[in-house]
Amino acid sequence: MDDFDAPRDETRTSTDESTDEPPSSPSSTRSEIASGADEPPVNGDAQTIEEMLLEFDHQDGLIRDRSLLDPNHIVSEERIVGRDRQLKEVTKMLRVALGDNRPPNLFLYGPSGTGKSLITKAVCKNISTICETRDIRFGTIEVNCQDLDTLGVAVYELASRAAEEAGVEVDVPKHGVATKEKWDELYRIVNENFDSAVFVLDELDMLVGRRDKQEPAFSRLLYQLSRAGANNDLTAHVSVVAISNDTKMMESVGSRALSSFTPEDVHFDDYDANQLQLILRRRRDAFYDDVLDEDVIPLAAAFAAQTHGDARKAIDLIRVAGELAEREGDERVREGHVREAQDKVEKNRVLEVVRGISTQKKLCLYATAAVAAETDDESARSTTGYRVYQFLTDAIDAEQYHQETYVNKMKEMTTYSLVDFERRSHGPSSGMFLEFQFGERPETILETLREDSRIDTVSPDEVSSVVKAQVRNEN
Ligand SMILES: Nc1ncnc2c1ncn2[C@@H]1O[C@H](COP(=O)(O)OP(=O)(O)OP(=O)(O)O)[C@@H](O)[C@H]1O
């Protein structure tokens, strides 16, 4: 190993020396207890908690800089790969903030983990640095809309992010006041503290809001924010960057919002395995030198490319592989750790999604994944999936939806990037169906869903034979 050898060897020595037992060492504590007349004999091999903690403390690590493996960390420009066009476009549009003009609004769209947030944050960070030298008060007000359920909550979140960026307090309560008051507070904070500000609304399509409203909450938010600039509620120069995985999000934006928001579109496409390898290679210094086996990066990149070229997944894979190797006390990160990590990362992602969905949605997903698991190209037709869904609901005596509702439930699942669909037809004279493609291995989805005790009562073999019969019928 390189120049990092020294400190790591030093730690090793100090661990070894600890067995020389200074009076207060954990071992002496243990022997003192063991020699106590009334105490039961202590297992000679057992370690005290303190010993185990100290051992962990001194254990050689493999990861040198965890921040490079943190998805929220804004990496420096030299580490950004394959996004020259998007960097140029976003920079060109937002640099207007450096002068005395309002930058245009932007809509950044593409699959998850393709660099939308990274590019936005990197450009805003650079603008902010230049603005400091020019005495322009520039702010980046960023919210992730994933967990915001109503417009009121979203506006409060924007106000508190603006306050945080400006280093001031929010002067309105989170609950129990009208949304109008939260808007006014947001305007006050922005107007008093910034000359120019960019609102970054990440995963905006997730801000659906109350179902009783005709227009989704994200559409109302875009309308109000872009109107506020035009009618002087916001005196600072404000631009809105809307980010979404859903390429069709703008179709659900109402016409009045669309006419005031009018964004410039920037598309982000999937990475291929080579780009993912490059992204990982430019972060290999996250690990100590020479601790990554040669095939670790290509394998992690290949796994991530298999789903949809998601850089977050590629980075997660090498981080989890490194952590597994560290936990096992291995001196290197090996191919086997990446395979183990792949299993873990996939399960976590699926778990995250399925944890929050209703039993009915789980049944729809289970039926469809069971079909995909039996087909060569891991796809499932909605017609076949529905028949398996009917079998499942009968088997556990659950309410049974019509096929149209089953299809709608599955379509809703596309927002989590777990599944995608295409409209297909059996032929010119027969009906249409949807073909579902999974973003993760269908087997992982099935395994995770079986953790639900109701679903687990149905035998997987039985489901598999029903699916086989249905797939045979469809051909
Ligand atoms: N071109 C790239 N070069 C280097 N790292 C990248 C690149 N694209 C993405 N990453 C890294 O991948 C991770 C995910 O990226 P980012 O959050 O920008 O994706 P995203 O498209 O915004 O995803 P989501 O839609 O899920 O929010 C981050 O750690 C980011 O640093």
Automatic annotation (TrEMBL):
<dbReference type="InterPro" id="IPR041664">
    <property type="entry name" value="AAA_16"/>
</dbReference>
<dbReference type="InterPro" id="IPR014277">
    <property type="entry name" value="Orc1/Cdc6_arc"/>
</dbReference>
<dbReference type="InterPro" id="IPR027417">
    <property type="entry name" value="P-loop_NTPase"/>
</dbReference>
<dbReference type="Pfam" id="PF22703">
    <property type="entry name" value="Cdc6_lid"/>
</dbReference>
<feature type="compositionally biased region" description="Basic and acidic residues">
    <location>
        <begin position="1"/>
        <end position="15"/>
    </location>
</feature>
<dbReference type="InterPro" id="IPR036390">
    <property type="entry name" value="WH_DNA-bd_sf"/>
</dbReference>
<feature type="binding site">
    <location>
        <begin position="114"/>
        <end position="118"/>
    </location>
    <ligand>
        <name>ATP</name>
    </ligand>
</feature>
<dbReference type="Pfam" id="PF09079">
    <property type="entry name" value="WHD_Cdc6"/>
</dbReference>
<dbReference type="InterPro" id="IPR003593">
    <property type="entry name" value="AAA+_ATPase"/>
</dbReference>
<protein>
    <recommendedName>
        <fullName>ORC1-type DNA replication protein</fullName>
    </recommendedName>
</protein>
<keyword id="KW-0547">Nucleotide-binding</keyword>
<dbReference type="InterPro" id="IPR036388">
    <property type="entry name" value="WH-like_DNA-bd_sf"/>
</dbReference>
<comment type="similarity">
    <text>Belongs to the CDC6/cdc18 family.</text>
</comment>
<feature type="domain" description="AAA+ ATPase">
    <location>
        <begin position="102"/>
        <end position="272"/>
    </location>
</feature>
<dbReference type="GO" id="GO:0005524">
    <property type="term" value="F:ATP binding"/>
</dbReference>
<dbReference type="Pfam" id="PF13191">
    <property type="entry name" value="AAA_16"/>
</dbReference>
<dbReference type="InterPro" id="IPR015163">
    <property type="entry name" value="Cdc6_C"/>
</dbReference>
<dbReference type="GO" id="GO:0006260">
    <property type="term" value="P:DNA replication"/>
</dbReference>
<dbReference type="InterPro" id="IPR055237">
    <property type="entry name" value="Cdc6_lid"/>
</dbReference>
<feature type="binding site">
    <location>
        <position position="283"/>
    </location>
    <ligand>
        <name>ATP</name>
    </ligand>
</feature>
<dbReference type="InterPro" id="IPR050311">
    <property type="entry name" value="ORC1/CDC6"/>
</dbReference>
<feature type="binding site">
    <location>
        <position position="271"/>
    </location>
    <ligand>
        <name>ATP</name>
    </ligand>
</feature>
<keyword id="KW-0235">DNA replication</keyword>
<comment type="function">
    <text>Involved in regulation of DNA replication.</text>
</comment>
<feature type="region of interest" description="Disordered">
    <location>
        <begin position="1"/>
        <end position="44"/>
    </location>
</feature>
<keyword id="KW-0067">ATP-binding</keyword>
